[in-house]
Design a protein that fits this description.
The protein has 297 residues and is α+β, with helices and mostly antiparallel strands. It has 2 domains: 119 residues, Aminotransferase class 4, branched-chain amino acid transferase, N-terminal domain (D-amino Acid Aminotransferase, Chain A, domain 1, 2-Layer Sandwich); 156 residues, D-amino Acid Aminotransferase, Chain A, domain 2, CATH 3.20.10. The chain contains 7 helices and 16 strands. Strands 8, 9, 10, 11, 12, 13, 14, 15 and 16 form a 9-stranded mixed beta sheet that branches. Strands 1, 2, 3, 4, 5, 6 and 7 form a 7-stranded antiparallel beta sheet that branches. A hairpin with a 5-residue loop joins strand 11 and strand 12. Helix 2 packs across helix 3. It is globular and about 55 Å long. It binds 4'-deoxy-4'-aminopyridoxal-5'-phosphate. 4'-deoxy-4'-aminopyridoxal-5'-phosphate (PMP) binds next to helix 6 and strand 14. The site of 4'-deoxy-4'-aminopyridoxal-5'-phosphate has 16 residues, from helix 6 and strand 14.
């Protein structure tokens, strides 16, 4: 079960970049009548800093702008300015290995469903965050429980935005899984096919040795997913984007998930099916570690 931070996030110290200025951590607040809080008009990013470098920073910043565009608002900064702000906030907080959280949202000028006149705010926080899953996850794999919630159809929600509203069902799914003793939830798509975890994409390897991953037609095409697909192809593996039925999982040889926070994490169990951490998963973990500079090249 996820435990709260020893220090609540609002009681940490440091600096947060907030609408163009560095403000003391505890003063980076907003009003309760903020549109984003009530109507989920909010997009965000999750980035990792490895040895002082933000991995794929430009890709993340571009996705932040794309997500905002999908939600119908413009971020009042340039991609270069947000990139520079992410770097600055890491430096000023002396975070060499950690997590960066840029967030953009509609403010409190209007309270109602329609709010075209709201000011768009941007903040960037950074903190030390070594591992998303427990350390045993890398050797034994995580356990996942199929969620009762499904990824929405592309005409039901802005599925390609990293939008806060889409995480409502992720939190519900993850709580449901954790309450049943699992690490995470496996979410199916609106048609009942394997989609992804609550914060990570999924890859499934069958006896033919091909690496399968669902097409991202109704969820985020993760930056880590794209990175791992390239690493896998560079190794000579065949990577296939295809729909996977949940009934196929019982014949899977290896399963792993990918995400900025999750990195490459093996899956040891889904519902009552168990999987071993096999050679392809291990190879992808090694290659990803090398790419981010955690292991020698
Ligand atoms: N799906 C969801 C729902 C996520 O929250 C994330 C993490 N951002 C991913 C997939 C993986 O995306 P990325 O590799 O870009 O972190």
């Amino acid at each position: 079960m996820a435990t709260p931070n020893a220090t609540p996030f609002h009681e940490m110290d440091g600096w947060i970049w907030y609408d163009g200025k560095l403000v003391p951590w505890r003063e980076a607040t907003l009003h309760v009548l903020t549109h984003a809080l009530h109507y989920a008009s909010c997009v965000f990013e999750g980035e990792r800093v490895y040895s002082g470098q933000i991995f794929k920073l430009r890709d993340h910043t571009e996705r932040l702008f794309k997500s905002a565009g999908i939600l119908g608002f413009d971020i009042p900064w340039t991609v270069d300015q947000i990139d520079a702000a992410c770097v600055e906030v890491c430096a000023v907080n002396k975070i060499v290995d950690g997590y960066v959280r840029p967030v953009a949202w509609r403010g409190s000028e209007q309270m109602g469903v329609s709010a075209p006149g709201t000011k768009i705010h941007v903040a960037i926080a950074v903190w030390a965050w070594p591992s998303y899953f427990s350390p045993e996850a890398r050797t034994k794999g995580i356990s996942m429980k199929t969620s009762t919630w499904r990824r929405p159809a592309p005409d039901t929600a802005p599925v390609h935005a990293k939008a806060s509203g889409l995480y409502m069902i992720c939190t519900l799914s993850k709580h449901e899984a954790e309450a049943a003793g699992y690490d995470d939830a496996l979410m199916l798509d609106w048609k009942g096919r394997v989609a992804e975890g609550t914060g990570a994409n999924i890859f499934v390897i069958f006896a033919d040795g091909k690496i399968n991953t669902p097409p991202t037609d109704c969820f985020l095409n993760g930056i880590t997913r794209q990175t791992v697909m390239t690493l896998a192809r560079d190794r000579g593996y065949e990577v296939v984007e295809r729909h996977i039925e949940p009934s196929e999982l019982k014949t899977a040889k290896e399963i792993f998930v990918t995400g900025t926070a999750a990195e490459v994490t093996p899956v040891g169990k889904i519902d009552d099916m168990t999987f071993t951490v096999g050679p392809i998963t291990q190879a992808m973990m090694t290659d990803y570690d090398r790419l981010v500079g955690r292991a020698p090249a």
